[in-house]
C-alpha cells in the first residue's frame, strides 16, 4: 500500500512538473505584462494627482478672479455714480452760466443807457471818492465821539460831586434834625426806675443814644436806654444823675446829651 501511494505521488509530481514546464513561458509573459500595467497605472495615478493639484489651483485662481471682478464692478458703479453727479453738476453749471450771461446782457443794456461820459472807470472813481468821504466822515465822527466821551466823563464827575454835596447836605440836615429832637416822657415807674419816652427809631434814637431829662431850663437827670421801637423808647433812670430833691415826672422833656456834629 505504501508503495502504491509513493508511486501515485511520483506520478502527480511528474505530471505537475510537465504542466509547469509547458506554462512557464506564459507565466513569464503574464508577469512582464503585469509589471508594465503597474507602471502605466502608477504613471496615470501621478498624472491624476497632478491634475487634482491643477484643479485646486484653478479653483483658487477662479475665486481670486471673481473677487477682482466684484471689486472692478464696485469701482465701475462708483465711477458711474461720479459720472452721473458730474453730469448733474455740469447741467447746473450750464444753467448758472445762462443766468450769468443773462445778467451780463442786462448790465450791458443798462450800461448803454448811462449818460454820456459815464463809464465803469468813472463809476469806480466816484465810488472811491465816496469811500474817501465816508472814511473822512468816520474820522471826524471818531473825534466828535472822543470829545463827547470827554464831556460825558466831565458830566459824570460833576454829577458825582453834586451827589456827594447832596449827600453831605442830607447828612447835615439829619444831624440838625437829630440835634433839635425833643421828646416827652409819657410814663414813669419809680418803683422799677424806668420811663417811657414818646420818640423812638423814627426820630433817630438808638440804644447807644445818651439822653437828658429837663424841666424848663433845669436838668433833672440822665437816662440809659433799654429798648427802642419806631416811636417809643424805654429807658432806665440813672439814680446818681438825679438832682437832689427832684424826681422825673410825665411831661418832662428829653433831649440829646451829646449833639451830633
UniProtKB/TrEMBL annotation:
Keyword terms: Coiled coil
UniProt keyword Coiled coil present: yes
Superkingdom, taxonomy of origin: Bacteria
Coiled-coil positions: 69-110, 134-168
Protein name, per record: Uncharacterized protein
